[in-house]
Amino acid sequence: MADKTYLDWPFFEPAHGALEQALDAWAGANINAIHGRDVDGACRTLVRQLGDGGWLDHAVGAIDTRAICLIRETLARHDGLADFAFAMQGLGSGAISLFGSAANKERYLPRVARGEAIAAFALSEPQAGSDVAALQCAAVPDGDEYVLTGEKTWISNGGIADFYVVFARTGEAPGARGISAFIVDADTPGLSVAERIEVIAPHPLARLRFDGCRVPGTQRLGEAGQGFKVAMATLDVFRTSVAAAALGFARRAFDEAIAHASTRKMFGQTLADFQLTQAKLAEMATGIDAAALLTYRAAWQRDQGRKVTKEAAMAKMTATETAQKVIDAALQMFGGMGVVSEHPVERLYREIRALRIYEGATEVQQLIIARELLRDAAPALEGKA
Question: Of 183, 187, 171, which is closest to residue 137 (Cα–Cα)?
Fold first, then answer.
């Protein structure tokens, strides 16, 4: 039922449309959105399925942002956990794709693409979420190794990952300029899962502890002190894809709302016959298209090799906030049915809430957008002074 006319937009090439259609058919045949209580097991199974299907090839190595976004949007329409499984393979290995040595790429990326190794991205800390420059986890050089001490939290795939890309303070300079990035295998002595974290849309999530964890210098990504650059370059790719996942959730909710409103009988007519319903559907559809335009503009722009910090932030902010409104409106149309556990709209209602927070909360996106606007305006303003 989903409207696919957006695939004809000039942002896309014919291969992108073919990719979306093939994945949509595959997901319809292979993915079940109800996973039961064993979320870890379900996530492992989904990673392997995505690897066997060849879909994880698009998440590692040479990055086509539009392909990643279309895959996330399509998977999110079918199942939030499938989208999560794909996204974390990409985010967890993205820094290796962008900054890893040839040896590290060869060691990790093929296994990630086959679904044989689960990846994770370990940036946030108990006192440093949005403020990356406040990281306290330390990596102290010791000969040819680094010794990591500290904690990370809110780490997706925490507890099931085979390796983590960890950001730690190496002290080359104050703030963001003194952070480096490392690949840390999950079985490295001194690395432990301190706590598993349960959230409203279940997925593997944990707090990690590093206690004298020794990592070879060859596991560092990029130069010492470039960890902030590594993190931001990785997030610039996958922040846009968060917007795409939100689009997938919103499109599924809209389809559910249209189908329900067209068949639900009320007072001798259908719910869709009421002008109040029509107005709400119009708002929902317009919001989805506006978010999609921002999302795929950012994805296209990055694929042209252009800077997308501002555009990715605009896309992420607009798409996640819009999806929250669309899903809430859809749930309202379903009435009591909408809050029944495991109803499609109820699942979407739980899934969307975290997207307004992770990889930069809405308020952080606003700060990023304003900072970029003011930076761009500064030269012209100086000329008028």
Answer: 171
Extract the tokens encoding 110.
């093929």
Q: Which residues, listed in sequence order, are joined to residue 168 by a DSSP beta bridge?
A: 180
Pull the structure tokens for residue 150: 């500290």
What pLDDT sits at residue 294?
97
Cα separation, 306 vs 297, in Å, equals 11
Query: Which residues, including other chains, have CB under 8 Å from residue 148's CB and lie 6 or more apart?
Result: 137, 138, 139, 166, 168, 182, 184, 190, 191, 210, 212, 213, 214, 215
Give buried/exposed letters for 101-135 (b at 16+ CB in 10 A, else e): eeebbebbbebbbbbebbbbbbbbbeebbeebeeb
Give every CB contact of residue 74 below 8 A, 6+ residues apart in sequence.
20, 23, 24, 27, 248
**Dist. CA 352–CA 327, nearest whole Å:** 8
pTM score of the predicted model? 0.92
* DSSP sequence for 123-190: --BTTBSS-GGG---EEEEETTEEEEEEEEEEEETTTT-SEEEEEEE--SSSGGGGEEEEEEETT-TT
Q: DSSP code of 8?
A: G
pLDDT at 237: 79
Helix (H) or strand (E) segment spanning residue 311 = helix 309-334
Phi, psi (5° rounding) for residue 45? Answer: -65, -40
Q: Between β-strands 265-266 and 191-196, what pairing exists: parallel, antiparallel or unpaired?
A: unpaired
Give the residue numbers annotated as catalytic, written as ranges: 359
What residue has token string 């990596």?
139
- C-alpha–C-alpha distance, residues 70 and 334, integer Å: 28
CA–CA gap between residue 154 and residue 157 (Å, rounded): 9
pLDDT value at residue 239 = 86
For residues 19-46, give the mean pLDDT: 91
Q: Average pLDDT of 352-369? A: 92
pLDDT score recorded for residue 383: 65
- How big is the CA angle at 311 (ends 306 and 315), to the nearest 5 degrees? 135
